[in-house]
Amino acid sequence: MITTLPEAEALYAKLLEQLRPRVRPETAMVGIYTGGVWLAERLHADLDLRVPLGAIDISFYRDDFHQSGLKQDIKRSHIPFEVNDRHILLVDDVLYTGRTVRGAMNELFDYGRPASIELVVLVDRGGRELPICAQYVAETIEVPAGRMLVLDRDASGRLSLRYDDERAQ
Amino acid sequence: MKTQIQNGRVIDPKHGLDKVQDVYIAEGRIVGLGTAPDGFRPDRVVDAKGLVVMPGLVDLAARLREPGFEHKATLQSEMHAAVAGGVTSLACPPDTDPPLDEPGLVEMLKHRARVLNLAHVYPLGALTSKLEGERLTEMAELRDAGCVAFSQAERPVVDTEVLWRALQYAATFDFAVWLRPQDAFLGKAGVAHDGEVATRLGLPGIPSFAETIALATLLQLARATGTRLHLCRLSTAEGVEMVRKAKEEGLKVSCDVGAHHLHLSEMDLGYFDTHCNVMPPFRSLRDRDALREGVREGVIDAVCSDHTPLDEDVKQMPFGESEPGATGLELLLPLTLKWAQESKLPLVKALARVTCDPARILGIDAGHLGLNAVADVCVFDPEGWFKVSPETLKSQGKNTPFLGYELPGRVRYTFVAGHLCYEAA
Amino acid sequence: MKMRNPQLNENGELQHLLTIEGLPREVLTHILDTASSFVGVTEREVKKVPLLRGKSVFNLFFENSTRTRTTFEIAAKRLSADVINLNINTSSTNKGETLLDTVDNLTAMHADMFVVRHAQSGAAHLIAQHVPKHVHVINAGDGRHAHPTQGLLDAYTIRHYKKDFTALSVAIVGDVLHSRVARSLIHALTTLGTPDLRVIGPQTLLPTGVEKLGVRVFHDMNAGLRDVDVVVMLRLQNERMRGPLLPSAQEYFKYYGLTPEKLALAKPDAIVMHPGPMNRGVEIDSAVADGEQAVILPQVTFGIAVRMAVMSILAGN
């Protein structure tokens, strides 16, 4: 376990190499907004996937709607392929409690019945509250309590990681 | 009972009096001002230090709800509200159920009021039978039973021929006719002033000319018949101007305004506040300011309460379905004081509009503290502010747009014919 | 005299949707953006999302309207809410139970949200001031006063086809006097920055002081339609067609009905909207209603998404 932040681009390269031998022509990929979509866009291109990229916003499937309400900037989910019987790689930036992934899976199941879903994340920071795990992880990082781990993308498309306060989310 | 009211600031608008002095009452009359009559030994002494001692208020319009509307309020509750507000004489409109178009009903009302022994009640008789605007009532019989003038309350006389003849008949006996100028058709589905606010709120409107067109008709007829005409509850700036010109011409015309209309306008409807549903409606700020100026100048002779107690159920409805009207007996003095303060008018002038001026219109010897006058006296605390709430109002009607407001002028004592009818707790 | 905006709770969040008047631009834009996401949901096979699961939405319609009630019902069901429809005949209300008594009874049955349509202006406000804190009220039309979800779906439709409110000329034609749809749309467009907003109609159908709402008044439809980007036709009620306000439907159609000739005065790519149901041959010619420039059917789809957006935003506050 590492406590100082590694370079996100380095982690991305690791993740790419983990995935490369495992993808097939019919593999579909879906990114979770927003960091997961950034990663998925890069992976989709670098892995030369044929099936068009999907992107989902899980705002309508969150389990904290009644406490926190609808958030402001909701993007439109877009799955440009048939979900039934598909092997899907679900991509997110940071895996933490597992609730985001639970919501994403619920949403995917409203589109159809996938043959399988595998989870791809850049960082696993532990702290799971649900029985969810990722099949592809670039790094496991211990994040200090009360802090969030955030993926940023600059104007040139370069990825980087930083800490933020929990409240800022 | 001989009563001495000590150390109060005595304000008597009719006599231009504003002086700290004692008032002496015996056998129901004022027997001394300043100096005690020879050998006067009081049975009761009231210390009015810091308080204002004024004539009991004369209210030209207060609905007492009897007969017929006892579920809204009773004579007893409303008469208590009157004296709690310092009102010692009041005129009640004829729109009871049945309307006051029979001498027997008038006698009964007068009798009930006398038994209660609180404020003096002056009933207005119906101008037409059942207020329907078709047949004249026996006005002379009604006068003998105790009516001081004749009115249609809120019902317009649609047939102008009948209106003309009714005014002529009243003029024959020199009876005064009190009418609220409102055209029978214009804005008859309306519930609010036809203007910007009604447009925004989507409420059917009553245009200003619904009042001024009717007013023009009434003034023309008054000119032709010579009837003593009193115009009730003006609400428009144009209306004030028309009355001013009529008075300048020498017509026997007087008018009043509801105390609420001196303060509120269409802007106060807010989010459909049904307590602001009144007739005539609260109009524009310009109209309100013209009414205030009209009272200040005296073009508008009197300020009245237009007291209309209603149960909460008829107000807890969508605006257009709610019943119009506001409770007001206990707010007549505070609202007049508030207006006087804001208009920077001295009390000795301002309070004329609720004492000697309305008394003159009623044709009664009241509203003043002259020697030998009937001892109708109101003693109030000019620094006493009170919060208007259902608990502080004695009327059964708690329907006022002033709920939650702090108003000046808490009444401490009210005497009617020398008898202490009300004492603040 | 209550001065706090009854639509907002103590945190300044939208607690009820009663009228568009007084809502800041950001709130309207948030609703429109959220609606856009819901349009995506309505295009999927599974058109439901679980946002309002376990919540009860009561459609309280004191005025008949199958269309509006149905779209609210569909919207609520797509949010996985339980929906109860109540068509309350005003005559049975007169038999004793007041409006507020009815609301109290339903609140006791664990209603979370009321969608209210009533013939009296201010009815939704009255209910909103009366319900407990956890209950939300949506005004589905109160008298002449407001129909905020319609105003929002009209704004959404305009945004969908024309993109930028701040560069538009919009004309609203017809019985503005009696129209809650017109009032809500006027508030929405002025808040969203539409620079040229016009109302067109005979004097008898335009309310006093309507220009104070931020519109230009035209009695001549030819002048009023010149170069507009959007034409919104209002429905003319049967009762109003002959009486003190108008002499006949025929004369109304001749001077204020939308025909292809009159539409040609607007911009060539102008869109035609109508809140429905349409009176063909009274306010609108069939050729226009069925023509290319009419976007009347898409308005309906957008209406469901907009109502889903409103319900979710309120339920989450």
Tell me what you see in this structure.
The complex is a heterotrimer of chains A (169), B (425) and C (317). Helices cover 23% and strands 27% of the residues of chain A. Chain A is α/β, with parallel strands linked by helices and 169 residues long. Chain A has a single domain (8-63, 79-168), classed as Rossmann fold, CATH 3.40.50.2020. In chain A, the strands form 2 sheets. In chain A, strands 2-1-3-4-5 form a 5-stranded parallel β-sheet. A two-stranded antiparallel sheet of chain A has the order 6-7. In chain A, strand 6 and strand 7 (159-165) form a beta hairpin. Chain B is α/β, with parallel strands linked by helices. Chain B has 2 domains: 3-53 and 373-382 and 406-423, Urease, subunit C, domain 1 (Roll); 56-362, Metal-dependent hydrolases (TIM Barrel). Chain B is built from 11 helices and 18 strands. Chain B has helices at residues 75-84, 103-116, 139-145, 160-172, 196-201, 209-225, 237-249, 285-297, 332-343, 347-350, 356-362, and strands at residues 3-12, 17-26, 29-33, 44-47, 52-55, 57-59, 87-92, 120-126, 149-151, 176-179, 192-193, 205-206, 228-231, 253-258, 302-304, 377-387, 406-416, 419-423. In chain B, 58% of the residues are buried. Chain C is α/β, with parallel strands linked by helices and 317 residues long. Chain C has 2 domains: 25-147 and 301-316, Aspartate/ornithine carbamoyltransferase (Rossmann fold), CATH 3.40.50.1370; 149-299, Rossmann fold (3-Layer(aba) Sandwich), CATH 3.40.50. Chain C is built from 12 helices and 9 strands. In chain C, strand 5, helix 7 and strand 6 (196-200) form a beta-alpha-beta unit. Chains in contact: A-C, B-C. The interface between B and C is medium-sized, with 26 and 29 residues.
